[in-house]
Amino acid sequence: MYTLHYSPGTASMVIHLALLEIGAPYRLELVDLDADAQHSPEYLKLNPGGTVPTLVIDGRPRVESGALLMMLAERHPEARLIPPPGTPERELWQQWVVYLSNTLISAYRLWFYPSELGHEEHPPAIRATLQRKIESVWDRLDAHLSAHGPYLLGDMFSGADLMLTMLMRWSRNMPRPVTEWPALKRLADLVRARPSWTKLYELEGLTEWR
Ligand SMILES: N[C@@H](CCC(=O)N[C@@H](CS)C(=O)NCC(=O)O)C(=O)O
Predict the structure, then answer these.
(1) What pTM, to 2 d.p., does this model score?
(2) Ligand 1 centroid, distance to 49 Cα (angstroms)
């Protein structure tokens, strides 16, 4: 049994999508970020970083969206969210999930939380640098997908595409939303057409970037 501590539209989204794709039973626990519930003593016991997601797997709290995606995908191979062990495709899957985590998740963190760099609001030069950093990832991924798409692993949809689409969604109010990159937009359109995406919008009460 899984319990997902989540907040709508945040980094917990990829894990919620993975659970829906898998069809495993799970319970949702809302972490009210506006009420700072992520810093409550009870929640910090589960996740000392004070962030979402936390996934409790058979009583064990686990954190980090990329790692949680790997855990779920490996525990449910029949859902085909990850290629079989020992294949070249598996190597590529691991490469992309770690790449997304290292580049986009960390750059977005700074983009959305200026206080982490000591500012209430980013000075224009820092804002521009972070924007460039995020856009350089879109450039690289778009080039990869134009040559080898439509998914990160070519013709095979996988959990890595769920993670990428969640991250693309976060750019919707940025100066250049990711939908300006054609191969990325094509991937997002494919993922947004999946029943798991529709279901997640319903369950999390999301409306934007449907
Ligand atoms: N590296 C973490 C980042 C998680 C993260 O930054 N989550 C944000 C929401 S997208 C959060 O919990 N923010 C609340 C806070 O930091 O106070 C992961 O990938 O799980």
Answers:
(1) 0.98
(2) 8
